[in-house]
Design brief:
It is a single chain. By secondary structure, the protein is of the alpha/beta class. Helices cover about 35% and strands about 15% of the residues. The strands form five sheets. Strands 2-12-11-10-6-3-4 form a seven-stranded mixed beta sheet. Strands 13-14-16 form a three-stranded antiparallel beta sheet. The longest helix is centred in the last third of the chain and has 22 residues. The chain binds pyridoxal-5'-phosphate. Pyridoxal-5'-phosphate binds next to helix 3.
Length: about 375
């Protein structure tokens, strides 16, 4: 069997053990005579699968009992609308703009309420996380993007909120990468396809008291937290198979030391790669040092001529792919290279990448 090192920003690599377990159970799940793909979501075989995913997530993230865990569809992008529709109280929310995904969340929220930009790093092409952000009182909620997948930055010091307005975060690209204090947030949402599972399920962790009886007028049933919460994510057919794989990924995280184990693993990988970039006179990382992500590492060469730089990037990406290091192109909006080193990426992948980078630098000086 030949597997590549997949540095994709998402969907991204899954632990090999998880894929192998799923393969072994593919046509006959534990004597049921069926694949999990074929089961009724209300069957006695499926019920423990979704329960296991929720229990494991609660344990790993230390989610308090007054928070609901919902397994929804539509990706993080649907949460951009669902959050304002359900958390609307007086009609104004504060957003911090730290990248492309924040910007999308802001644009969507503006359809439903007033948005004040509490802080932004847009003027500096989103290369950092604003410091000492404080949110004045009076907002329905405040929203941040905890890890900026495209720009490669992450929050380490959360904004201060003057009153007790809930902090909402998009944690799509960093959930389970290190411990998160859930009690600091009113709502955490994450699309699965970075650190959790294949695409198809969106995890929402919401403090119970924030779920309104009735959301904003006109909110579709499927975008109503209360509906999903009251029906334990079974109002309609949930993304059954993805939730099954999620359970397996969570078991893998558990076997590997939980979120503390992931943090250690991720810090080791990130520090190897960042140290290499910092010492290099051929490459450089693009995010400001104090804001660097553990999960997404964007970098460029130091070539100043734009045309030569673009040609070099192209060469790097194609030669890397030929060497079994795939999906290293930066996001189409920012160019350059990006290595996404989510939980499932083994340190051997980062070492292989650095070895390739070193050879490429020597050959292209
Ligand atoms: C990938 C990503 C999204 C988009 O997720 P979808 O599930 O495709 O909607 C949103 N926010 C962040 C931070 C992401 O990394």
């Amino acid at each position: 069997m030949s597997r590549v090192y997949n540095f994709s920003a998402g969907p991204s690599c899954l632990p090999l053990e998880v894929l192998q377990e799923a393969a072994a159970e593919m046509t006959d799940y534990r004597g049921s005579g069926q694949s999990v793909m074929e089961m009724s979501h209300r069957s006695k075989d499926y019920e423990p699968i979704i329960q296991n995913a929720e229990t494991k997530l609660r344990t790993l993230m230390n989610i308090p009992d007054n928070y609901k865990v919902l397994f929804l569809q539509g990706g993080a992008s649907t949460q951009f609308a669902m959050v304002p529709m359900n958390l609307y109280r007086k009609g104004t929310a504060a957003y911090v703009d730290t990248g492309v995904w924040s910007d999308k969340a802001i644009k969507e929220a503006k359809k439903y309420l007033n948005v004040d930009i509490a802080a932004s790093s847009k003027a500096d092409t989103y290369t950092y996380i604003p410091e000492n952000v404080s949110i004045p009182a009076g907002y329905d909620y405040a929203h941040i993007t905890l890890n900026n997948t495209i720009m490669g930055t992450r929050w380490t010091v959360l904004p201060k909120i003057a009153d007790n307005a809930p902090l909402v975060t998009d944690a799509s690209s960093c959930i389970l990468s290190e411990p998160i204090d859930v009690t600091q947030f009113g709502l955490i949402y994450a699309g699965a396809q970075k650190n959790l599972a294949p695409a198809g399920v969106t995890v929402v962790i919401i403090r119970e008291d924030l779920i309104p009886e009735t959301p904003l007028k006109g909110t579709p049933t499927m975008l109503t937290y209360k509906i999903h919460s009251d029906n334990s994510s079974m109002y309609n057919t949930p993304p059954c198979y993805t939730i099954y794989i999620l359970g397996k990924v969570l078991e893998w995280v558990e076997r590997n030391g939980g979120t503390e184990g992931m943090k250690k693993r991720n810090e080791e990988k990130a520090s190897l790669l960042y140290s290499y970039l910092d010492a290099s006179n051929f490459y450089r990382g693009t995010a400001r040092k104090d804001s660097r992500s553990l999960m997404n590492v964007p970098f460029v060469t130091q070539e100043k001529d734009p045309e030569k730089a673009a040609a070099l990037n192209k060469k790097f990406i194609s030669e890397a792919a030929a060497a079994g290091l795939v999906n290293l192109a930066g996001h189409r909006l920012v160019g350059g290279m990006r290595a996404s080193i989510y939980n499932a990426m083994d340190i051997s992948g980062v070492k292989a990448l650095i070895a390739f980078m070193e050879t490429f630098a020597k050959e292209n000086k």
